[in-house]
Structures are given as C-alpha cells and as structure tokens.
Write a structure and sequence with these properties.
globular, 2 domains, alpha+beta, nine-stranded mixed beta sheet, D-amino Acid Aminotransferase, Chain A, domain 1, about 290 residues, D-amino Acid Aminotransferase, Chain A, domain 2, about 25% helix, about 25% strand, 7 helices, seven-stranded antiparallel beta sheet
C-alpha cells in the first residue's frame, strides 16, 4: 500500500454517523455493492465553505437509492448536516464532496440483498482549479464512445447508480488512449446523449441546444445552466440531436459538478470555437457558486 496514495490521505470520512480516519475506512470485501454494483452516489462541490445545492443533491441520493430498492437510514436533512460537519472536520473551504450509499455485508453472497445492511459514507477532498478561464476557453477534445447509453427499459437511468458507469469508464479509457479528453456517448437509438460523466450543450445562432434527458441522468448542473440561460434570455432547446447535426453548431460545452462548465473544441471531425455564449454562462455560473474564475 502506497504511503502517499489516495487511500492514505489525511483526515476523516463520515461513515454511518461516525468519523473514521481516512486510511482506516474499510468494508468487508464480500459486500454486495462490490460484487453486484448495488450502490449509488452523489458529487457535490463546496465553494468558499458552502456546499452548492446540497439539499438537492441529498434528496437525489435518497431517490437514487430508492430506485435501487435501498432505504437510506438518514433523512435529507441529516445527510446535509453530515456533509456540513465533514467539511468542517476536514477544514476545507473548496472541496469535492462524495456521499455514497451501498449494500454491505449480509448472511451470504447472492444477487438478492434485501437483508443486507444499507450504509452511508461522506468523503471529501480538495479539488483545485486545473485551468484558468483562458485555458478552459481553448476547449477539450472528444471522440465517439464505443458504448451507448442503454434503453430506459433495460437500466434505471434516473438513478446515479455506480453500476451504470462501467461503460463510461471503458469509454473514457479508450478516448484517453487515442489522445482525447473524453468520449461522447450516443443513446440506444443513436442520438447524442452525454459525455462519460457530464451533460453536453451546443450553441447555434446564439441559442442553446441540449439532448433530451430521457436516457441519461438529468444533471443538477445541467438544470442550473438551463435556468441561467433562461434568466439571460438565451433560448434553450431540449430535443433529439443526431450525430450528423453536430456540424451545424458553433460552440459546445460540458456541464457537471466536476466539469462545472467545460468548453469543447473538437468532436472527432467537428470543430467548435468557445465564444460569447459559453463565456457568458461560465461567468454566470461562477458568480452563482461564488467561484473566482
């Protein structure tokens, strides 16, 4: 075990109502989540000592667990307070926040896990700004993913479930191996869906276009950006976008808790120039969350 690895970060993780030292927070390897993927999570961000849209994230965590048949043994208010307490315990002002719910160890190991204990942890770590706004405005490069988002009839896409990210990990790895930053995933019908861990927006004639969130998670940052655009009298179109339409747009960006607003300059053979609309929404988002660009 590395003395400086992620598993040995200083500080504490909140687990089932108690603070446990970061490097002592272990679960039995025969837990249900590890073998069958029965876990859900959130990604929150703290800016200047305040966790952005904390209650919205906590309620979505509970809803995701419910979709997977898990009853979280804490209310949204209790999860909110645990996140606030952990931020204070860690002494952070700007951080990434990871609440995680999982089915733990049971009397045996099988697909059925109704009697397994439901656990909750909250971990957080400092998340620096890797790029200045000027660097971000150069845009990242995407390729097309090999895998598609599954049909709503085959997967609980409205849950932020860990198991649904397996194809995202594979797609991200393949994209990076080819020299791209991320991959653009299509839905099961061949429409543009999202990147591996972020929603996507396009700009045409000063108006926003974004895929309809009916096969992938309707991100909290996505909804925030749509609201900011409408407040700025920028028209927003939510609908189906075909890959052959990608050349019709002039700007493109990703949204998510980790991505915030990340401009895109390339999707394989299509090029975009991050410009006025992207910059305007980045400024509005930074102002809303209290981040200095």
């Amino acid at each position: 075990m590395s003395a400086t690895g992620f598993e040995n970060k200083p500080g504490y993780i909140w687990i089932n109502g108690e603070f446990v030292k970061w490097n002592e927070s272990y679960e039995h390897i025969l837990n249900h989540a590890m073998h069958y993927g029965s876990s859900v999570f959130e990604g929150d961000r703290a800016y200047n000592g305040k966790i952005f849209k904390l209650d919205e994230h906590s309620k979505r965590l509970i809803r995701s667990a419910e979709i997977l048949g898990m009853k979280v043994p804490y209310t949204a208010e209790e999860i909110n307070q645990a996140c606030i307490d952990t931020l204070k315990k860690q002494g952070f002002t700007n951080a990434y926040v990871r609440p995680y719910v999982w089915r733990g160890i049971g009397d045996g190991l099988s697909i059925a896990g109704d009697n397994n204990k439901i656990n909750l942890l909250i971990a957080m770590w400092e998340w620096p700004s890797y790029y200045s706004k000027d660097e971000l405005m150069q845009g990242i490069k995407l390729c097309f993913a090999e895998y598609k988002r599954p049909s709503p009839a085959t997967a609980p896409f409205e849950a932020k479930a860990a198991g649904l990210y397996v194809i995202c990990t594979l797609s991200k790895h393949k994209a990076e191996a080819k020299g791209y930053s991320d991959a653009l995933m299509l839905d099961y019908q061949g429409n543009v869906a999202e990147a591996t861990s972020a929603n996507i927006f396009f700009v045409k004639d000063g108006e926003l276009h974004t895929p309809k969130a009916d096969t992938f998670l309707n991100g909290i940052t996505r909804r925030t950006v749509i609201a900011l655009a409408k407040d700025a009298n920028i028209k927003v179109h939510e609908g189906y976008i075909k890959p052959e339409e990608l050349g019709d747009f002039t700007e493109c960006f990703l949204t998510g808790t980790a991505a915030e607003i990340t401009p895109v300059s390339v999707i394989e053979t299509h090029t975009y120039k991050p410009a006025a609309v992207t910059a305007q929404l980045m400024d509005a988002y930074y102002k809303l969350v209290g981040k200095t660009a």
